[in-house]
Amino acid sequence: MVALLESFQQALDQREAKLARRRLTILSPGAADFSSNDFLSLSTSSLLKSRYLRKLDACFSSRKAVGLGSGGSRLLDGNSSFTEELEQFIASFHDAPDGLLFNSGFDANVGVFSCIPQPGDAIVHDELIHASVREGMRLSRAKTKLQFKHNSINDLNRVLQRLVKEDPSISEGNRNVFIAVESLYSMDGDVAPLKEIIQTMHKLFAHGNAYLIVDEAHATGVFGPNGAGVVQDLGVQKDVFLRTHTFGKALASQGAIVLCTTLTREYLINYARTLIYTTAMASPTLVAIRVAYELMQQGKTQPFQQNLQSNISYLRACCDAIDGIDRSIVRIDHHDRSPIFSIRTKYPRELARYCQQRGLIVRAIMAPTVPLGKERVRVCLHAGNTRHEIDQLVGAIKKWAEDLKMGSPKL
Ligand SMILES: Cc1ncc(COP(=O)(O)O)c(C=O)c1O
């Protein structure tokens, strides 16, 4: 026991020494949020709250009243007509044949990648793919797991061609290739070139044995018609084998749905252990998800999407107009229409602390969350950020960079 606890302490001390120890923090109330994934600011929306409370009340007071907790796994007592109707409703909103709810995006990705690729298959993924996909791949029976350079069609082509050349069972169509990407990347804030990926896939796999899997976690609610995501924005839903949308970010709730065919859904129900061996979501969560999707379907989240885009344009214009800032000290990376900005500096922790001390919540993102040398301060914009807050943030970054240049750094 003592030895075990000592090894815990040693591990933590090692992390501390490398400045890599993780800690839970509690946000100070009233601070400006430039960090959470609450992109549409729906978690503080009175519209969402009032609709949620009304629907919750209706669910619990109706004659067909639902229980508070689900009471078990989906396969035992945790299923309900409310759950199945919700899946149908979300699938139809996303123009997908069917859908299966999971308790989180993490569970969805682990479930999908651990059971869908068959022995002898290959998974080819973007190098920045989320940890949950990596965890699923670790459990997968796929023979080959390869990565390609982030958002690089050339590199994807190279990896796929090598696969085709070296594995006759793949080139002859007897084994499958799964290509795993995110639509909007959480750290770099850029969007995957889905159309080019689909073209590449079709060109190289005439037998139709390549399958695209898109994680829309960060794009849900933010991009596409009424927030339906990037896949629907591009109209390529028929070319995507499976999509994952999560509800814990812009939709102010939690959980996820896997959009797929009815056959794939049935397969997941039988083989995805993260669905089978866990208690299904409780009714308040299902109601929250239903209400958020109803708002999207009715176009009621459009003004939030527009406010977010307007804030993005404003911050972008402010960043472009910052004069006198030494770009070797601070560089701001941003991709068109993305709510995520990366403030690249050699001292991300110090800049984040400086902003936090001024009531501006931003976070330093360090390796291994991002590759070594690409550490940054991540700024995430929201529909509810005010112009004043954005001005304060830009002012703080500018002042910190100026002080650093003048040799009186706030480190
Ligand atoms: C791309 C991506 N996929 C999946 C997840 C996991 O989703 P959840 O938070 O619902 O478990 C995240 C969350 O950070 C994510 O960024």
Automatic annotation (TrEMBL):
<feature type="domain" description="Aminotransferase class I/classII large">
    <location>
        <begin position="34"/>
        <end position="397"/>
    </location>
</feature>
<dbReference type="InterPro" id="IPR015424">
    <property type="entry name" value="PyrdxlP-dep_Trfase"/>
</dbReference>
<keyword id="KW-0663">Pyridoxal phosphate</keyword>
<dbReference type="InterPro" id="IPR050087">
    <property type="entry name" value="AON_synthase_class-II"/>
</dbReference>
<dbReference type="GO" id="GO:0016740">
    <property type="term" value="F:transferase activity"/>
</dbReference>
<keyword id="KW-0808">Transferase</keyword>
<dbReference type="InterPro" id="IPR015421">
    <property type="entry name" value="PyrdxlP-dep_Trfase_major"/>
</dbReference>
<dbReference type="Pfam" id="PF00155">
    <property type="entry name" value="Aminotran_1_2"/>
</dbReference>
<dbReference type="InterPro" id="IPR004839">
    <property type="entry name" value="Aminotransferase_I/II_large"/>
</dbReference>
<dbReference type="GO" id="GO:0009102">
    <property type="term" value="P:biotin biosynthetic process"/>
</dbReference>
<dbReference type="GO" id="GO:0030170">
    <property type="term" value="F:pyridoxal phosphate binding"/>
</dbReference>
<dbReference type="InterPro" id="IPR015422">
    <property type="entry name" value="PyrdxlP-dep_Trfase_small"/>
</dbReference>
<comment type="similarity">
    <text>Belongs to the class-II pyridoxal-phosphate-dependent aminotransferase family. BioF subfamily.</text>
</comment>
<protein>
    <recommendedName>
        <fullName>Aminotransferase class I/classII large domain-containing protein</fullName>
    </recommendedName>
</protein>
